[in-house]
Amino acid sequence: MSPTLVRDYMTTDVVILRPGDAFKEIVRALADRGVSGAPVVEETGRVMGVVTEADLLHKEAFTPVAEEPRRYFASRSSTRVAQTKAAGDTATDLMSAPAITVDAEAPIARAARLMAVHGFKRLPVVGDDGALVGIISRADVVGVFLAPDDELRRQVVADVVERCLWENPERIRVQVRNGVVTLSGRLASKSLIPLTVALTRSIDGVVDVVDELSYDRDDMTSDRPEAWRCS
Length: 231
Fold this sequence. Notes:
InterPro entries: BON_dom, CBS_dom, CBS_dom_sf, Diverse_CBS-Domain, UCP036990_CBS_BON. This protein has 231 residues and is α/β, with parallel strands linked by helices.
C-alpha cells in the first residue's frame, strides 16, 4: 500500500528568512503572515535553521526588568544559548540550528513522529537536493484524519481485502464511520485476522479498527504458520 506522503499535505507558500534579516524584520515577517516560526534559508535553498517566537522571546527575558524570567533561565543548563540569542540581532544569531527537516517523499507518519519527538509545531520540507520546497505543520498532519469515510472504505477494500489478502470483497464487510473501520465476515484462516486489522490500521486517515472477523480454519497452532507479504 502506498502511504500518504509529506508532499501531499505540505504548504508550499512559505515565509522564508534570510541569514542577515534583522530582529524587527523577522518579527514583522512572522506577524504579517500570522505564523509562529520560519526557516532561515541560504540563497542555494539549503535550510540553515529555524527562528520561532520562542527564540525571539529570549531578548525580552534577559532585559534588566525581567528579573523572574532571568532567574528561571539561570537555573537551566541552556542559559548560555538563551543569553546568546537574547544578544542576537540577525536570523543567524537567533535561529535554532541545525534544522530538523523532513523529505517531501517521506510518509507523513515520519513527519508526525519527528514533531512528537522534538516537540515541534512545524518542519521544513526538503527535496532530493536538500533545498526547501515547503513546510508541514501539526495542523497539516492532523488533516490526514479528515479523509471521507467512503474514500477510506474504498482504500480498505482495494488495498487490504483485494490486493493484499486476495479475498472476495463479498466475504469481508467493511464499514467506516467517522474514520473508525469495522471489519466483519469470514477469512480463510485465523492468522489472517491480526494481519487484516494491522493492514487496515496502517492506512492513513484510519482512526481505529473494530475487529468482528471470524475464520474457517484455526492455523495459529501450526508449527509452520502461513507467510503473507503485501507490497
